[in-house]
């Protein structure tokens, strides 16, 4: 559709929008016409009646028939006009349109942006955006509470089961795998607590700050931004609405006189074909029709002149309205871009699948579970509680008389160590470096500390040792030397 066609449609629909009371005026006009209408036999003069050479009774009978026929014709004419207008007029209240009427082309044009007052939807968009931001903040604050509750429940779950796991009958790498679930839960609880803080302190505060900078509230309600847009639309549309009102007035006047002309033509056609209508009456009806026709031509010319003025004003009106609309669109574009970035930030915080810390938690847990070694656990049990345990097999012990010489302190300590080594078994070693056990089945010691080596080095370079407190574990073979 070209701009010229669009302007023509705009003007036409603008006129149709302002015809709300036309039906009522038509009804009143029809009532007045019915009162003004007089039967043909009443309009005949006395001389005309005297000029009739027919009998009085026959003449009166024909007069009554002619008058009744004209009254019926007039009634039928207005009934036809009323039925036609009823068919053209939409049924029901204009404020409560049905779903089917909303899809009609007439209703689409009546709701068009170009029609008076229909810019309010664009004005209201600014206020709606502010309320949408409030809903968004409330929505993700509730999500933040869910994250906090989940973190608390993870911590409670871990604290509840950690003592049970530590005191369970499991041992070795299998026990360590179970314990890793507890430590992973603690780490995840911390991560979800950080998600909660991010949603509230970062995303929520960011939206609040943006709202404060973007929407400026007025003292008596509303926002400065929406008022500026509304004032611009109203200022631009005021002369347009004035022209539309003037055009509608001219259109209604033209339609009114057109109906009068149509009725006059109908009366003229009826009179010309009716031999009972006197010639002077036919002439009078013809003069009335000509007079109404001239009046209709005048009103039509005025209507066309006003319509031409409105059509010439349409391009300017459209340009000014689009300028203000583009300002509103630019503000809305900034709002959409900001909210898009906010949604992406929220997605980044909630997307635990791409969170490096979460991936590290589950990666460590997986590696710990994959490190469960049934052979190593069985070997540890064998050496700790089974046949691999060191023991002091029975052997012949020669009786030796006690020496009465007083032993020195160092000699007594050395003999106690030797007896202890013989009783427990193993080789005494001394640590060359500090070592902190990385696993639960490893020993930790300081440089210079001495303990027993109860198992030789394996193919991976590890030995098993036992400290004086009875704690056993693995240690690197090259970290110690034999005493």
TrEMBL record:
PROSITE patterns linked to this entry? F_BAR, SH3
Where does the record place the F-BAR domain? 107-377
Q: What kind of membrane protein is this, topologically?
A: Peripheral membrane protein
Entry superkingdom: Eukaryota
For this UniProt record, give its keywords in alphabetical order, as a comma-separated list. Answer: Cell membrane, Coiled coil, Cytoplasm, Membrane, Phosphoprotein, SH3 domain
| Record region (Disordered) | 1-107, 257-277
- Statement: the UniProt record of this protein carries the keyword Mitochondrion: no
Basic and acidic residues: compositionally biased ranges? 13-40, 60-75, 260-270
Q: Which Gene3D superfamilies match?
A: Arfaptin homology (AH) domain/BAR domain (1.20.1270.60), SH3 Domains (2.30.30.40)
Give a Gene Ontology cellular component term annotated to this protein.
cytoplasm
The UniProt record lists the SH3 domain at 424-483
Q: Where in the cell is it found?
A: Cell membrane; Cytoplasm
Q: Does the keyword Cell membrane apply?
A: yes
Fetch the SMART domains from UniProt: FCH (SM00055), SH3 (SM00326)
From which residue to which does any coiled coil extend? 278-309
Sequence ranges of Polar residues compositional bias: 95-107
Q: What does this protein do?
A: Plays a role in endocytosis and regulates internalization of plasma membrane proteins. Overexpression impairs internalization of SLC2A1/GLUT1 and TRPV4 and increases the levels of SLC2A1/GLUT1 and TRPV4 at the cell membrane. Inhibits the TRPV4 calcium channel activity.
Quaternary structure annotation from Swiss-Prot or TrEMBL = Homodimer. May form heterooligomers with other PACSINs. Interacts (via SH3 domain) with DNM1, SYNJ1 and WASL. Interacts with TRPV4.
Which PANTHER family does this UniProt record tie to the protein? Answer: PROLINE-SERINE-THREONINE PHOSPHATASE INTERACTING PROTEIN 1 (PTHR23065), PROTEIN KINASE C AND CASEIN KINASE SUBSTRATE IN NEURONS PROTEIN 3 (PTHR23065:SF22)
Protein's recorded name: Si:ch211-51c14.1
> What species is given as this protein's source?
Oryzias latipes (Japanese rice fish)
